[in-house]
């Protein structure tokens, strides 16, 4: 039954009418629109407003227009604000570091995720779902617990170092915790399934008779991968990269628990602005706006390229 | 032929990468699970098998805060997931059974907005919102925030399932004198059930999983399990944390297994 | 069949249906009689399925009205019309058993809420018996073959005793052998139940074998309505002549027209007797249509021969041989010759032959 495609002789199935597609059903969207509009869109707009307000010293804001937050982000005017403006590198560096970290995490996820997804997608039907299941199970485990587990494992006096020393592979513990590598490991651990799943979906749809055709036309295995398979599964790869990059950019747990103070990322910077009375709400709102703008930019470029690909 | 194509599909080293991948994914969890049964109070030396940390989790006064946090987590996840699933089911039918109209793409974007906005940004915005309207942060604010970001997670599997259900079944039901409501309850709902269950489970797990947003909107006094664990971990990883983690891990594995089985049932 | 005495089941009154700029149906009128096996026949996109869906209530009309036993149903939603549909893809509810599927309509019908439960049970059993699937009641649709699913779909649609049963290409998903046996079964069930069947198909053989009457549709309009025989032998226009069966088409001019009996002149100057609709004017340009089996081959100098041509090739088709000949004006002529012992042709490609046709078999059409 699944193999039979309906052949509506008039092509009416795409047009709205009768009971199949009723424009009135739009009303069923109202609750979702209301909840997301009222509790997400409105708050984001409010956050934009807050980023232009004046901070109050005990946390919170004073309702007075000010561009101080953005000014503080980009410019250094000295301790008392009376010196000529210089570029303030502190926050730009944090953002830059976050972008680099997120990019590296994306590349690592791709390098490991692609072969994994490909391997799973080319398993026979009987075992494919099991492999997929194995890769996705950890994703269902609480992110915090996963990150804590990773921290526990790679600590200087953690089990990994103990075992390696016991076996005699190393003499002194490998120092991983509070390094960039630990953050990378954490990000990889957090977001790998986001890479594997879309890539898997596109490889699974790939028509392997095309690879056979390439082999028939004297292409080597790796040439086939590069020239035939990769172009075909590119949409899945791009989707996977975005799904890893975007949350990595605003990640909080992995940098906070595994990276320590030296490897501050955007997430921690923002969080700090809202913690206790030391914070600066307008500045935190401004940082959030800048992060959100970056993410929306990436998504818009992606949507644009998707639309162009769809139009072709 | 099958042999040849299998050969063409194969790339040396891909199996190895997959195994490394699985090792990285599972090793930390397995290690924590194993060490949660460690009798020794020193958390890295193996001191024999014991349930003592589990016993402590359930009985010591010190761990009472975890009990309360667990209760909060589960009740919030349950209510947020139910609300999100109901809203998402209605939204999925509203999107997929309403034909073409202007603004449909925007509506899709709006429903999926919680997935696109970075969690930390959602957290900040929600905190600012509740503070601006003078809402006391606490249990209710957590619940509302969770419901919002659970909607797209519930929506996606339900919508995917609904897209696979041909409209002809609803037409057949209508043709056989069923009212709109009967068509929904007797035909569409049973056919959508695998998607709805997957959507609910996903929303539940996502709610249970959330740390960042909860951490922002919880206010003082109310803790969920992740925020309680995070607070405790800041003091160092103690064996009782590992026991709690193992218990949560088990819950997650149960959920994913159920969801996997439901998914397979849905394919039949 | 004397149709004038029969009750009209469905009256289509100047129905038009537009999808935006696209016209699916244009001013379609016609009547379907009670207890009739009526077929809508046409190529893909001709509007036949749209028309069926309008009768079922899945589409609304842009203009016009649909009457069911004299009452307008154009405004009634599908679930209030005493009309049931057998869908092309069966569309059995996959989560219900065969029996649950068959009893679904009965349970949904408002009038059955006051009835005894045992009525529904009994009616379901009766329907399953009708389609010979009594022993499959507890199975799920996925456990049945295509033909069995189709029969369940039929039982399900018949169970609530609809006044009209609509069938949307119900046999198209079956393989040839099954399709042929289902034709017989469908026709029998229609006669047993006495329910009006409206059957949609693009398969002319299906239409010709099963139908009491056929409406040939094209481009959103009904081209001709009539029984199988009249549609085949007396096509009212070129589309019908061309769509149903094979036909030879020769350009010509109508020289005279005496109440349907006329003569026409072909391009090569040949003049022959033919039939023509009486409203076609003399001197009208048009096409002479001759069915291949109505042409007979004879020697080129036979005085009975009205046409002539050179044989190009032969296609052996089992019971028949199709002979392809070409006239002096380069028009192709198909001739069907039965492969009986007496019909050993002894002809070769290149031979010139004469062709015999009687006036009743040559139909002049002006469009």
Overview of the structural elements:
- The complex is a heterotrimer of chains A (312), B (268) and C (367).
- Chain A has helices spanning 30-50, 68-74, 89-121, 125-140, 143-154, 159-167, 180-205, 209-216, 221-249, 253-259, 266-273, 281-311; strands at residues 53-55, 61-65, 75-76, 86-87.
- The longest helix of chain A is centred in the middle third of the chain and has 33 residues, at 89-121.
- In chain A, the strands form 2 sheets. In chain A, strands 1-2 form a two-stranded antiparallel ribbon. In chain A, strands 3-4 form a two-stranded antiparallel ribbon.
- Mean pLDDT of chain A is 84; it is low at 1-18.
- Helix content of chain A is 66%, strand content 4%.
- Chain B has helices at residues 2-9, 14-35, 52-59, 64-96, 104-111, 113-116, 119-132, 139-164, 167-175, 180-209, 212-217, 225-233, 239-267.
- Chain B starts with a helix and ends with a helix.
- Chain B contains 13 helices and no strands.
- Chain B is 77% helix and 0% strand.
- Chain C is an alpha+beta fold and 367 residues long.
- The two termini of chain C are 29 Å apart.
- Classes of the chains: A mainly alpha (312), B mainly alpha (268), C alpha+beta (367).
- At the A-B interface, helix 1, helix 3, helix 4, helix 5 and helix 7 of A face helix 1, helix 2, helix 4, helix 5 and helix 6 of B.
Number of helices in the DSSP assignment of chain B: 13
Element order of chain B: H for helix, E for strand: HHHHHHHHHHHHH
> Roughly how many Å apart are the termini of chain B?
28 Å
What's the overall average pLDDT of chain A, rounded? 84
- Could you state the oligomeric state of the chains shown? heterotrimer
């Amino acid at each position: 039954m699944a193999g039979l495609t309906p052949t509506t002789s008039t092509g009416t199935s795409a047009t709205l009418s009768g009971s199949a597609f009723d424009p009135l059903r739009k009303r069923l969207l109202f609750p979702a629109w209301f909840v997301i509009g009222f509790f997400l869109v409105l708050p984001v707009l409010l956050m934009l407003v807050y980023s232009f307000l004046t901070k109050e010293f005990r946390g919170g804001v004073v309702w007075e227009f000010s561009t101080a937050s953005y000014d503080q982000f980009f410019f250094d005017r000295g301790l008392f604000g009376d010196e000529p403006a210089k570029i303030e590198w502190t926050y730009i560096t944090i953002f830059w570091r976050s972008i680099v970290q997120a990019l590296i995490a994306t590349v690592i996820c791709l390098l490991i995720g692609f072969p994994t997804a490909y391997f799973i997608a080319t398993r026979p039907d009987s075992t494919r779902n099991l492999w997929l299941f194995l890769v996705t199970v950890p994703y269902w485990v609480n992110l915090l617990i996963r990150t804590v587990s990773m921290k526990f494992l790679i600590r200087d006096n953690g089990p990994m170092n103990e075992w390696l020393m016991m076996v005699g592979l190393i003499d002194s513990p490998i120092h991983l915790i509070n390094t960039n590598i630990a953050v990378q490991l954490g990000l990889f651990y957090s977001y790998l399934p986001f890479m594997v799943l879309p890539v898997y979906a596109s490889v699974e749809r790939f028509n392997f008779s095309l690879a056979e055709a390439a082999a028939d036309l004297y292409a080597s295995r790796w040439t086939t991968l590069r020239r035939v398979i990769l172009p075909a599964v590119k949409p899945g790869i791009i989707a996977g990269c975005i799904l890893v990059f975007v949350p990595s950019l605003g990640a909080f747990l992995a940098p906070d628990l595994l990276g320590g103070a030296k490897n501050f990322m955007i997430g921690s910077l923002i969080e700090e602005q809202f913690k206790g009375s030391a914070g600066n709400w307008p500045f935190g709102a401004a940082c959030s706006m800048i992060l959100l703008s970056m993410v929306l930019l990436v998504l818009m470029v992606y949507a644009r390229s998707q639309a162009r690909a769809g139009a072709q | 032929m099958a042999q040849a194509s299998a050969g063409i599909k194969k790339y040396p080293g891909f199996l190895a990468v997959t195994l490394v991948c699985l090792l990285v994914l599972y090793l930390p969890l397995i290690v924590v699970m194993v060490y949660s049964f460690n009798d020794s109070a020193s958390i890295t030396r193996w001191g024999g098998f014991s349930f003592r940390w589990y016993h402590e989790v359930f009985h010591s006064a010190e761990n009472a805060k975890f009990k309360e946090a667990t209760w909060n987590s589960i009740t919030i996840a349950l209510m947020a997931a139910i609300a999100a699933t109901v809203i998402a089911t209605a939204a999925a039918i509203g999107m997929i059974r309403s034909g073409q109209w202007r603004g449909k793409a925007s509506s899709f974007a709006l429903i999926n907005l919680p997935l696109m906005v970075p969690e930390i940004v959602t957290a900040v915005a929600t905190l600012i919102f509740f503070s601006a309207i003078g809402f006391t942060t606490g249990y209710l604010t957590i619940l509302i925030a969770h419901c919002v970001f659970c909607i797209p997670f519930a929506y996606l599997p339900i919508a995917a399932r609904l897209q696979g259900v041909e409209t002809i079944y609803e037409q057949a039901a209508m043709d056989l004198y069923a009212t709109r409501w009967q068509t929904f309850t007797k035909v569409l709902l049973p056919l959508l059930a695998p998607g709805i269950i997957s959507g609910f489970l996903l929303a539940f797990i996502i709610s249970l999983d959330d740390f960042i947003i909860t951490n922002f909107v919880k206010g003082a006094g109310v803790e969920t399990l992740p925020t309680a664990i995070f607070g405790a971990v800041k003091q160092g990883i103690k064996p009782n944390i590992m026991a709690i983690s193992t218990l949560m891990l088990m819950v997650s594995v149960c959920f994913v297994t159920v969801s996997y089985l439901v998914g397979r049932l849905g394919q039949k | 069949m004397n149709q004038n005495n029969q009750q009209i089941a469905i009256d289509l009154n100047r129905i038009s249906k537009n999808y935006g700029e696209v016209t699916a149906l244009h001013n379609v009128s016609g009547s379907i009689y009670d207890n009739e096996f009526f077929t809508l026949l046409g190529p893909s996109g001709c509007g036949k399925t749209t028309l069926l869906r309008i009768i079922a209530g899945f589409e609304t009309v842009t203009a016009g009205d649909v009457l069911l036993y004299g009452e307008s149903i154009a405004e009634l939603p599908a679930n209030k019309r005493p009309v049931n549909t057998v869908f092309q893809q069966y569309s059995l509810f996959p989560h219900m058993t065969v029996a649950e599927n068959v009893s679904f309509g009965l349970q949904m019908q408002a009038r059955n809420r006051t009835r005894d439960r045992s009525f529904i049970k009994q009616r379901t059993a009766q329907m399953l018996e009708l389609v010979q699937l009594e022993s499959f009641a507890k199975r799920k649709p996925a456990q049945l073959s295509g033909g069995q699913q189709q029969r369940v779909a039929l039982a399900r649609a018949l169970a609530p005793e609809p006044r009209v049963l609509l069938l949307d290409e119900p046999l198209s998903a079956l393989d040839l052998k099954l399709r042929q046996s289902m034709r017989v079964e469908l026709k029998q069930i229609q006669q047993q139940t006495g329910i009006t069947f409206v059957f949609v198909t693009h398969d002319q053989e299906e239409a010709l074998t099963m139908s009491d009457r056929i409406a040939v549709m094209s481009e959103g309009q009904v081209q001709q309505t009539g029984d199988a025989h009249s549609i085949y032998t007396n096509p009212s226009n070129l589309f019908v002549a061309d769509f149903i069966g094979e036909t030879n088409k020769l350009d010509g001019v109508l020289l005279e027209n005496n109440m349907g009996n006329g003569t026409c002149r072909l391009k090569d100057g040949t003049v022959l007797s033919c039939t023509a609709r009486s409203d076609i004017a003399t001197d009208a340009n048009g096409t002479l249509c001759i069915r291949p089996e109505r042409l007979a081959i004879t020697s080129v100098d036979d005085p009975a021969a009205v046409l002539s041509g050179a044989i190009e090739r032969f296609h052996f088709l089992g019971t028949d041989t199709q002979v392809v000949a070409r006239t002096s004006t380069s028009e192709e002529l198909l001739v069907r010759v039965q492969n009986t012992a007496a019909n050993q042709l002894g002809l070769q490609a290149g031979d010139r032959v004469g062709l015999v046709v009687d006036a009743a078999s040559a139909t002049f059409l002006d469009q």
